[in-house]
Amino acid sequence: MKIRAIELTNLRRFAGQRARIDGIGDGISVLSQPNEFGKSTFFDGLHALFFHPHRSAKAPVKTLQPHAGGAPEAAVEIDLPEGHFRVEKRWLSRPAARVLDASGRLIAQEDEAEAWIDRLTDQGLAGPSGLLWVRQGVLGMEPEGAGASEKSERERALHARRDLLSSVAGEIEMMTGGRRMDQVLARVNDALAKLATSTLRPRSGGEWARAVDEAATLTEECAYLEVKAARLGAELRQRAAITRDLAQLTDATASAREIEALAEADQALKSAETHAERIAKSEADLRLARLNTSQGAEAISQLQQLQTRLASAGTGQNKAREALAEVESLTEKTAAQEAEAAIRHEATREKVVALAARLDHAQRARLALAARDRAASLATEYDRAERQRAAGETYRADRSLLKITRTLLDKAEEAQAIRDRLALQDEARLVLVKISYQGDARVLMDGRPLAPEGIRLRAAVGLDLPGIGHMTIDPGLVAASDLAAQLTRAEEALAKSLSACGTSSIAAARKALAEAERLDGAIRQADNLLAELAPEGIGALQSRLAEARAAAGAAETEPAEEPALLQDQLQAAREVEATALAQRHEAETRHATLRESRAARQASVQSADQILAAVQVEAGDLVDLAARVQNLTAAQPALVQAETEAAAALARLTENAPDLATAQATVSRLRSVVEGRRRDLARLQSDLAGVNGSIGALADEGIEEALGELRGREATASARAARYEREVKALARLRTALEDARRTAREAYFGPVLREIDPLLSILHPGAALRIDDTSLLPIALTRDGQDEGLDILSGGTREQLAILTRLAFARLFAGSGRPVPVILDDALVHSDDDRIEAMFTALHRVAQDQQIIILTCRQRAFAPLGGERLIARIERA
Amino acid sequence: MTYRFLHSSDLHLGRAYGGFPEDIRGRLREARHTVIARLASAAREAGAIDVLLAGDTFDAETPSPETLRHALRAMAAEGDLRWMLMPGNHDSLAASELWRRVQADAPENLVVLSDPVPVELASDVWLLPAPCTQRRPGRDLTEAMSAPTPEGAIRIGLGHGAIMDFTSDEGSPGIIPPDRARLSGLDYLGLGDWHGRMQIGPATWYSGTPESGGFKHDTAPGALVVHIAASGAPAQASVAQTGQFDWLRPVMDMLPGEDISARLAHILPPETRRRDTLLRLEAAGRLTLAERAAFETQLAAIAPDFGWFETDLARVATEVKPYDLDLIDRGGALRRAADALLSESADPSRAQAHRDLADLALSRLYALVQEVDA
C-alpha cells in the first residue's frame, strides 16, 4: 500500500477548513512546517481513518473534533496492487465510511467500508496494522516538566507508544501467538497449578491430591474392613462347626449307649475287686506259713550258736588272767630302775646351775667397766658441743641487732654522695656575707654579733650596724631555687637510707657492716664445730650420753672370776647332765610301757569275765537248752507242710482271676468319655455364646455393606485420580508444545529483524549490535565494543535513533513479505545531533528504496539535508 | 381353581453402590428398599397373595441392622400379602447370622424357606424350594424338587443359580438343568440369580431383578405375575414393571459431518425420565476437533439432567483437518504447537499411550483457544 494524498475536513486544528496533502511519492516525502501548523493533526486523522470505526465515539475520536464542534472527516487516497482508491470517514455527526475507486465509483460504504479497511490493515490476518507509526515520544523520550501542557504531551506520547507497540505487536503476535498464546499458556498453567506441583506431583489441597488421598484412605479403610469381614466369615464358619459338633454331642442314642456301657464296666470292676480281695487273703495266709517255717529254723540255729559261744567264753577268761600276772611282775622291776636314774640326774643338774651363776656374775663385771669408759668420752664431747652451741647463739643474737647489709650501705653511700653534691652546689649558690672587723664594733644579727667567717644567706636578713643603722641583705631569688628542694629530698633520702642501715652516719654504717661480717664468720665457725661434734644433733648426743651413763651405773663394779675358765667348766658339767638325763628318760619309758601293758591285760580279763557272764545268763539252764533244741527240730516238718498247702491255694485263686487293671481302665475310659462329652458340651456352648456375641457385634456393623460401598468409592476415587493424572500429563504436554513453539517462533522472528537492523545500525554505529528482549520483543541493549549498554543509559538521541531503525527494519520485513507499508514519522528525530541526524537520513534513504516514508517535521533547516519529496499542505475553507 | 402369585428375585437389599456419588448412591439404595412396596402393589393388582422371592433378597450375608430391619418392617407393612423368602447365593444358608436375625424378627406374613422340603402354599398348591446352602454349593440343589406331593397338586419350584452349561457334554455339576421343571414334574419353576428377565422353557423363568443395579441387562426391571389354573395346565406369566431407575448404556458410533445433536437426542430418554436415569454413553468412531469440542459441550450441558451421567470417549478418535487447526491459528506459534501435537498423535512409531496423550493435549489446546477467543 502506498499513500498518495491525505485530506482532513473540520478535524481538530482545521476547524471549518479542509487541509490536503497531495503528491506523496514512493520514497521519502517530507512535510516540513512550523509548530502549530497541524502536522500531528494530519498524523492523528490518518491514524483514526485506519483504526477507529466511523460509528466510534470513543475518546480518541472525540479528540478529533474541533472546539467549534461539527463532524470531523478524514480521507486518504492510496495505491494498491488492485488500483487507486479513496477512503473516507466521518465521525460523531452523521458518521459515514466510504471507499471509492479511481473513477469515483463507490466500492463500499458503512460497515462494508470498515470491513474493506480492516482487510487492508490486517490483510485478513490478526496481525499487523499495515502502517508503522512513529511520532515524537517514542521509547520514553518524553517532555520534561510538570506543567499541564507537558503532562498532556506525555500522555499523548504514551498513547503514541502504545499505538506503535500495538502496530508492531500485531506481527509479533502473529508469529509467536502473542496475547492468545499468553492467555492459553496462562490457562494451561492455571489448570496445572490447581492440580499439580511444579514437578507434576499432586498439589496439596488440589483435586488430584484429594482424589489420591481419598483413594489411599479408602484403600486403608477397605483393608481394615476386609480384615473384619474375614473375621466375621471365619466366626460364621466356626459357629457352623460348633453347631454341628453340638448336634453330635446332644445325640440321645449315643449318649444312652455310653451310659449303658459305663454301667456294665462298673459291674465288671466290682467282681474283679472281690476276687482280688480273696487273692490278697490267700497271699497273707501263705506269707504267715512261710514266716512260721522260717522262724522255727531260725530258733534252732540260734540255740546251737549259743552253745558254741558259751564254751569259747570260758577258754578266753583263763588266757587273760595268765597274761596279767606276767606283766605285773615286770612292772615292779622297771619302777626301781627308774628311781635310780632320777637321783643321778638331779645331782648333775645342780652342778650345772652353780657353774652358770658364777659365769654370769663374771660377765656382768666386765660390761660395767666398758660402760664407764664410754660415758666419760661422751660427756667430754657433749661439753664441747654445748659450748659451741652457746657461742653460736650469742653470735646470732648480736648479729640480729645489726640491720646493715652491703646493699643498704651502698645505697646510703650513694644517697650521701648525692646529698653532698647538692649541698656543695647549694652552698656555692648562696650569698656569702663575710665581715672583716677592724674594731670592736660588731655587726649584730638577731641581737648577736655576726662571726667574722660570715654567713651564707638563703633569705633576707636584717643586720644591725651599731652606730650606723640597720642593714637588710636580700639574696633575691636564690631562696626560691629548685636546688634547695632537691637538697631537702636528698637529705631525706639519706636519712631514710641510714635509718634502713640502723645507723646515723655513713661511718657508723661502715663499722656496723664490719661487725656484722665478723659475726657471720663466727656463726659459721661455731656451726661447723657443732656439726662435727654432734652430727646427729646435740639432743642425740645427749641421749647417747645418758644411755652410756645408765649402762655404767647398772653394772657391778667389782671384778669376778675369769669367765673363760668358768665357761669351760660349765660345758663339761652340762655334758654329764645330758647323759644322766637320757638314762633317766629311758628308764621312765620302759616303766610307762609296762604300766600300759598291765592295764590292757587287766581290761582283757574284765572283758572275758563279762562275756562269760552274759552267755551264761543267755543260756540259762544248760540242760533246758539242749531240750529246746531237740523240740524245735521235731516240729519243723509240720510247718513246711502248712506252707506248701497255702501256696497251692493261692495258685488256684490266681489262675482264673479277672484283670482288675483292665476293668478299672475300662471304667475310667468310659467315665472320661461321658465326662468329656459333658465338658465338650459346656465348652462348645461357651464357645457358641462367645462366637454369637462376636458375630452379633460384627453383624451389627453391616461390614459387607460398608465394604461394598468403600470398594466402589475407592474404585471411583482411583479412577478420578487417574483421570486427573492423565489431565495433568496432557496439560504438561500441551505446555511443553506451546513453549517449544513460541521459542521456535521467537528465534525465527529475531533472525530476520536483526538481519534488517544490522545494516541500518552500521550506518550510525559501525560494529554495534542490537540485543532484543525475548519477552517484549523490542530492543533492550546496544552492544558496542563487546559491552552491553541498556537503553535506559543511552542518550535520548541514540534511543530515538534505535527506535526508528527498529521500525524501519520491521517495515522492510513487511515489504519483503509482499506487504509494503508506509512508515510515518511525526517529529520523530528531535534529539539527534547534526552528524547523527544526517546518518539517520542516509538510513531512511536506504530503506526508502522500496519503502514509502512520510515525515512530518517542524525542523525545516535540520531536515533540509534529508532530501526527498517536499510536500505542501493546502488549506481552504470547507 | 387358579393360583396366582408374584415371582421375583435378586432384590439385593443393602447394595452399597460405592462407585457412585453420594446423592445418587442414597437414592439408589432407597429405590432398592421401596421396591418392596412396588412388588406388593404389583401382587395386589394381579390378585396374588404370595410373593415368592427366589434368592438374593439381601445383597450381603450380613446386611446392616438397618437394611434388615427396614426390609422386614416394609414386608410387615404389606400385611395382606405373604412373603416367601428363599436364600440365594448372596444370602445363602451359610449366612447363619442373617437368617437367625430374620427368624428372630420376622413378621407373621414372612416365611423363610430354609429347608428343601415341600411347603403347602394353598390347598393343593405346593412349593418346592431349593435354598442355597452355600454361596457355591457345588451340587444341583433343585434335585430336591422331585420330592413327592399329593396327587393332583400344583407343584411350583423355586430355585436360584445358573442353568446348565451346554458347552460341555455332561454339563457342570452344581448347575440347574434347564429341563428341571420336566424332570421334577413342576408346573412352574421360578428362578433367581440372573438379573435380566429370561424365559428358559415353557414353565421356567428367571424373573430378573425388580430394580436394576447395573448396566448389564437391557430388559426393563420388573416381576412376573404367574397364573396356574391347575396341575398340568400351562403357567401364564406376565411382566409387572417395578423399577424406579433406568440404567442405560447407549453406544454412539460417529463420523465427521454427522448431526451429533440429532443422534444424541435420539438415544437419550425423555427429559422427564432423566432424573431417574443412570446413563453411561459409550462413544466410538471419529470426530473433528470442532465436532468433538461441540460434542463435549453438549454432553456437559445435558449431564445435570440425569441422576448419573458418564461418558466414555476413549474410543472416539479425533480427526483433525487443516480447517480445525486454522481455528486454533492459521500460523504462528499456536499453530506450530498444534501441528506438533497432531504429528505426535499420528506418529505410529510412538506408544499408543503417548499418542493418546498428544491427542488429548491437542483437544485441550483447541478448547482453550476457543475459550480465549470467546
From TrEMBL, chain A:
Protein name from the UniProt record: Chromosome segregation protein SMC
Domain of life from the UniProt record: Bacteria
InterPro entries, per database record: P-loop_NTPase
UniProtKB/TrEMBL annotation, chain B:
Keyword Nuclease: yes
Pfam families: Metallophos (PF00149)
Keywords: Exonuclease, Hydrolase, Nuclease
GO MF term (any one): exonuclease activity
Keyword Hydrolase: yes
SUPFAM superfamilies named in the record: Metallo-dependent phosphatases
Top-level taxon of the source organism: Bacteria
Domain Calcineurin-like phosphoesterase residue range list: 4-95
Protein name: DNA repair exonuclease
